[in-house]
Amino acid sequence: MADLKVNIGHLALKNPVMTASGTFGYGLEFADFIPLDGLGGFIVKGTTLKAREGNDYPRMAETPSGMLNCVGLQNKGVDYFCQHIYPQLKDINTNVIVNVSGSSPDDYAECASRIDALDNIPAIELNISCPNVKDGGMAFGVTCAGAESVVKAVRERYHKTLIVKLSPNVTNIADIARACEAQGADSVSLINTLMGMAIDIEKRRPVLSIGTGGLSGPAVKPVALRMVWQVARAVKIPVVGLGGIMNAHDAIEFLMAGATAIEIGTANFIDPSVTIKVRDGIDRWLDDHGCHSVREIIGCLD
Ligand SMILES: Cc1cc2nc3c(=O)[nH]c(=O)nc-3n(C[C@H](O)[C@H](O)[C@H](O)COP(=O)(O)O)c2cc1C
Question: How far is the centre of ligand 1, averaged over its atoms, from the C-alpha of 109 (Å)?
C-alpha cells in the first residue's frame, strides 16, 4: 500500500479523495454505501446564513456525458446546520468541510464565523459562484475584485483552513486564483459548474425553470483539467481539482496536473460507492508503478 496522505495547508488528509458539495448531501445519506471515514474528507451541501428554498422545478436535466442543475442552494441555513446536522457529523473520523455561500461579503463572513465556532469542522470551502445581490447579480467569482471582496471579509472572521472554490465561467482563472491567494486563501478548489442550457423544442422553452444551469460530469473534465493545470502553475497554495472525475484514471490526471487532492461530484449519483473505488484505484496504480507516496505524482508533468 502506498502512502496516500496529503496536506491542504494545515489540513491533513488520509488520502486525496473528497466529495463535491451538493452531490453528497450531508454525507450521512451515503453511510450505507461507503465507510465515510475512508475518505480524505467530505464537503457538505452549500450552506447560507438564512434558509433558502432553492429554485422552482425542473432543476435538473441530463445532457450528453453530463447534467445541468439549477438547484439554487436549497438549505435550511447555518444555524440549523450547527444545531441539527453538526451533532450527527462531529464524531466521524475524517475532515468534514462546509461549503459556504452568500449574497454579500458580510453574509459570507457571518456564516463562516458561525462555522468557525464548531470544533470538529476544520475547514470551509467558499462557493464564490454566487450572485452579488448588491452589485447587479453578477457572480463574485467572475472578477478579481468580486473574489477579493469575499475572501477578504471571510479571512477576517474565519481562522481555520479556507478553501476558495473558483468559477470556470471566467476569461482567466489563474488571475482569480492569484487574487484569492493574495487575500489569504489557504487553498483553491476548481471547478464549479460551467454555465449551460437545454431547450425543450416541443414546449419551445428552456428545460430548466430559470433558463440556465450549471453543467457537470464527464463533459466538463477536459476544461477542468486544463484550468487546474493553469492554476497550479500560478499559485503557491495547494489546489483541489474537480470536474467530471468518474474513476481513478481521471483522478490521477488531476493529481498529475497539479492538484493535491480531488473531489468527486456527479459520479456519486451514478455509483454511490465511487469515491472509495477511486481511492483504491489510485492506491493500486501507485503500487503498480512503484510509487511509495501519492505525493510523487502531484504536479509531476514535465
Ligand atoms: C446537483 C448539484 C448541486 C451542486 N451544489 C453545489 C453547491 O451547493 N455548492 C458548490 O460549491 N458547488 C455545487 N455544485 C458543484 C459541484 O460541487 C462541482 O463543482 C461540479 O458538479 C463539478 O464536479 P463534477 O463534474 O464531479 O460533478 C453542485 C453540483 C451539482 C450537480
Answer: 21
Please identify, by atom number, the ligand 1 atom nearest to the C-alpha of residue 269.
31
In the chain, what are the domain boundaries? Answer: 6-296
Nearest ligand 1 atom to the CA of 46 is 8
The alpha carbons of the chain give a radius of gyration, in whole angstroms, of: 18
Contact in structure between 294 and 13 (CB atoms under 8 Å): no
Q: Which of 82, 111, 130, 291 is catalytic?
A: 130
Distance CA 282, CA 248 (A): 5
Q: From the CA of 192, give the closest atom in ligand 1.
A: 19
302 residues of the chain, pLDDT tens digit each:
899 999 999 999 999 999 999 999 999 999 999 999 999 999 999 999 999 999 999 999 999 999 999 999 999 999 999 999 999 999 999 999 999 999 999 999 999 999 999 999 999 999 999 888 888 888 999 999 999 999 999 999 999 999 999 999 999 999 999 999 999 999 999 999 999 999 999 999 999 999 999 999 999 999 999 999 999 999 999 999 999 999 999 999 999 999 999 999 999 999 999 999 999 999 999 999 999 999 999 999 97
b/e code 233-243 from CB counts within 10 Å (16+ = b): ebbebbbbbbb
- For domain 6-296, give the CATH superfamily: Aldolase class I (3.20.20.70)
Name every protein residue with a CB atom under 6 angstroms from any ligand 1 atom. 20-23, 45-46, 69, 71, 73, 99, 127, 165, 192-193, 216-217, 220, 242-245, 264-266
144 is catalytic: no
Distance CA 42, CA 17 (A): 8
